[in-house]
Design a protein that fits this description.
The complex is a heterodimer of chains A (250) and B (426). Chain A has 250 residues and is of the alpha/beta class. Chain A folds into 2 domains: 1-84 and 235-250, 2-Layer Sandwich (Nucleotidyltransferase, domain 5), CATH 3.30.420; 86-229, 2-Layer Sandwich (Nucleotidyltransferase, domain 5), CATH 3.30.420.40. Chain A contains 9 helices and 10 strands. A 5-stranded mixed β-sheet of chain A has the order 3-2-1-4-5. Chain A has a 5-stranded mixed β-sheet with strand order 8-7-6-9-10, sandwiched between helices. In chain A, helix 1 (35-43) crosses helix 2 (58-65) and helix 3 (72-83) crosses helix 9 (236-249). The longest helix of chain A has 22 residues, at 175-196. Chain A is globular, with a radius of gyration of 18 Å. Chain B has one domain. Chain B is globular and about 55 Å long. In chain B, the strands form 2 sheets. In chain B, strands 2-1-3-4 form a 4-stranded parallel β-sheet, sandwiched between helices. A 4-stranded parallel β-sheet of chain B has the order 6-5-7-8, sandwiched between helices. The chains are: A alpha/beta (250), B alpha/beta (426). At the A-B interface, helix 3 and strand 8 of A face helix 19 of B.
Chain lengths: 250, 426
């Protein structure tokens, strides 16, 4: 039996195909201005017996492609627990939101927290800051890792932080120290969320931002417990959705 | 939402409303009402009354107030349930709760109030500055109260635009605070008597205590039915009933709510519900949801959950406690009123442990699977109390989701994700 899990996020559309419970294929595309069409290309790639959608576009996807919709929170819980059976919590930093999730047995969500309306401390925040510093995302992460210490960035608001960074650049502050400070400020805030929900290790760090080595290093340094980053961190939500589809068909 | 065949525009013009903006408001609220309420499945027939009241919210009801005033009656507008409706009615006036549940004329509001003021206060000012609320314009007197710093200071600005009187609500519940609050009731009586030219007597107060208690009893019946699974009425419809209770004609509303309660009790006996048996049941606690703020209920119920109770001023706090009806002298009645009203558990009080007990008790009685703690952004009292609420609910073994929001639609996507995830978790 072949099932498809779709995670339609603000920055990317991720797909995972399972056949008899095993991953047979996966794919990632930019959401662009028409994420539904990006997803449709995946849906049309071959026959499947069931489909489950998650992410921002889950309801639109359910209407367009059928199947069911679950939230990213549930999907990441299921996905992370399948990758690491002893996982106790999940950190997912995506393009537009951050989620921290505490898990009970079998990936069942017991508590979670998600950022409010703005994109503070998300992938979008890092993108904007990289541009302000004249870096690519990869360069910014590398510069942050190379810097010995970070500048304290007081604002978490993307708009205010950008002004703050511009001010620091004009004062001649080292770009690497600013880059490190930006990563540190997100991590400090994220660790606070993890503490509030009583997250225990091992922690699965997923979502697109888990591909950022500076973020991974700083989270691992600050979190009290093991931090695991799946090889395809971005597709954990789609994997969870696919597992959900497989279970509902089983 | 104007009544069919009746032209209320001359009445609105006479009240000084900004007609084009008022048309825009009615169209927006009417559209919201249709999408939010009329799309619900299997509603009780008794909701037809509230649908009608809402369709005439700025029409027939305003005409009633208008006629009452033209025959010499006085209308008193209030913003908070601590202002006793019993006293207003006993002085021969009618009480209307002024709604403040939508973003309106914020551009004008922000010239007077800071941007980071809570949505309820901004809306309260916006309806006045935007000249779109006929209830405000029908009010001969507005009675405010010192429940929070934001309202207290905003009333100073509102008082420059309209006849305003502010009661001082104590913020603790010691015997001396009850005595002080009683003295505030005495002062309010003097103010009301000067307005209406009628005396508040033991007879008139006894009658109004009974009348308002009857309204509360009817709402208690409606809300008690919500403990059943399947729930016989949606959270949206139940919330609407309390929102309308603030401004509708009291005896008529009581009668219609008792009829609705009869129907709900029959539904419960027959196992008829608005959501399937086993739908996730949510208790909401927090800041009041003034008309037409239906945002959170709509999100929860669109996601497949059912709201079974509201521990809030537009909920249980409005109808749960009655005023003693056995008193015979005015003095005794004032004692009873002071005691009843200071027994309401708003976050403006310290300490406010009674609210924590109420939340857990209601969650158990209504068989809630989880609790959503709801605060309006910049409402410091509720936002701070949220920590204690979350801990108490958690310690009682129930999941809790804390939400901080305003009246705008910009966070509906994220809120939906959080609420859906919460329901999936239950």
């Amino acid at each position: 039996m072949r099932v498809l899990g779709l995670d339609i996020g603000s920055r990317s559309v991720d797909a995972v195909w399972l056949d008899d419970g095993r991953i047979v294929d996966w794919a990632v595309a930019d959401s662009g201005f028409d994420p539904g069409s990006a997803a449709a290309i995946f849906v049309d790639r071959g026959a499947h017996d069931a489909i489950v959608s998650t992410g921002y576009g889950r309801h639109a996807a359910r209407e367009r492609f059928g199947g069911t919709a679950i939230t990213e929170i549930t999907a990441y819980g299921i996905g992370a627990a399948a990758l690491h059976p002893d996982v106790a919590s999940v950190l997912d930093i995506g393009g537009q939101d951050t989620k921290v999730i505490s898990l009970g047995s079998a990936g069942k969500v017991t508590d979670f927290e998600m950022n409010d309306k703005c994109a503070a401390g998300t992938g979008k925040f890092l993108e904007v800051m990289a541009r302000a510093l004249g870096f690519t995302l990869e360069e910014m992460a590398a510069a942050a890792l190379a810097a010995k210490s970070g500048v304290v960035i007081s604002s978490m608001c993307t708009v205010f932080a950008e002004s703050e960074v511009t001010g620091l650049v004009h004062r001649g502050e080292d770009r690497g120290r600013i880059a490190r400070g930006l990563h540190e400020s997100i991590v400090t805030r994220t660790l606070g969320s993890l503490r509030r929900i009583g997250a225990k290790g091992p922690l699965v760090f997923a979502g697109g931002v888990a591909k950022n080595p500076a973020m991974v290093e700083l989270v691992a340094k600050g979190f009290d417990g093991a931090v695991l980053v799946p090889a395809e961190a971005q597709t954990v939500g789609a994997f969870g959705a696919a597992l959900c589809a497989a279970r509902s068909e089983a | 939402m104007a009544g069919e065949g009746v032209d209320y525009r001359p009445m609105w013009a006479e009240l000084g409303l900004d007609l084009p903006m008022h048309d825009a408001l009615l169209e927006a609220v009417g559209g919201m009402y249709g999408q939010t309420f009329m799309t619900q499945a299997n509603r009780p027939e008794g909701m037809g009354y509230l649908d009608f009241v809402m369709s005439e919210v700025h029409g027939l009801r305003i005409k009633e107030l208008d006629d009452f005033r033209k025959s010499g009656g006085k209308v008193v507008g209030t913003y908070c349930l601590y202002v006793p409706e019993e006293l207003i009615r006993a002085a021969g006036a009618w009480s209307v709760g002024i709604c403040a549940g939508a973003e309106w004329a914020y551009d004008q509001v922000e010239q007077i109030l800071p941007r980071n003021t809570c949505a309820l206060i901004k809306s309260m000012m916006g309806f006045k500055l935007g000249k779109v609320c006929p209830y405000l314009e029908e009010a001969d007197l507005l009675v405010g109260e010192t429940t929070c710093d934001g309202k207290k200071k905003a009333y100073e600005e509102l008082g420059k635009l309209q006849n305003m009187y502010v009661m001082e609500l104590p913020q603790m519940k010691r015997a001396k605070d009850v005595a002080f609050w009683r003295s505030e009731l005495v002062d309010l009586i003097a103010k009301l008597e000067a307005l209406t030219g009628k005396k508040v007597t033991a007879e008139s107060l006894k009658a109004s205590i009974k009348e308002v208690n009857d309204k509360r009893r009817a709402l208690q019946r409606v809300n008690a039915a919500r403990a059943a699974d399947p729930a016989p009425i949606s959270g949206l419809d139940s919330l609407l009933a309390v929102q309308v209770a603030f401004y509708d004609d009291v005896p008529r509303f009581t009668q219609m709510m008792n009829a609705l309660a009869d129907e709900l009790e029959a539904r419960v006996a027959d196992g008829v519900g608005v959501a399937p048996t086993g739908a996730k049941r949510v208790l909401i606690t927090g800041t009041p949801m003034a008309l037409p703020n239906w945002k959170l209920h709509q999100i929860v119920e669109t996601a497949g959950g059912v709201v079974v109770g509201e521990e809030m001023c537009t909920g249980s706090r409005y109808f749960e406690k009655l005023v003693n009806e056995d008193a015979s002298t005015l003095d005794e009645m004032l004692d009873d009123l002071a005691a009843k009203y200071l027994d309401i558990n708003c976050a403006c009080f310290t300490p406010n442990e009674g609210r924590l007990d109420d939340v857990v008790r209601m969650a158990r009685n209504l068989k809630a699977d989880g609790v959503i703690d709801y605060s309006l952004q910049f409402c410091g009292t509720y936002q701070i109390e949220s920590t204690a609420v979350q801990k108490t609910v958690h310690d009682a073994g129930l999941p809790v989701l804390s939400i901080d929001t305003d009246y705008s639609a910009e966070d509906v996507g994220q809120l939906s994700t959080r609420v859906e995830a919460f329901l999936e978790m239950l």
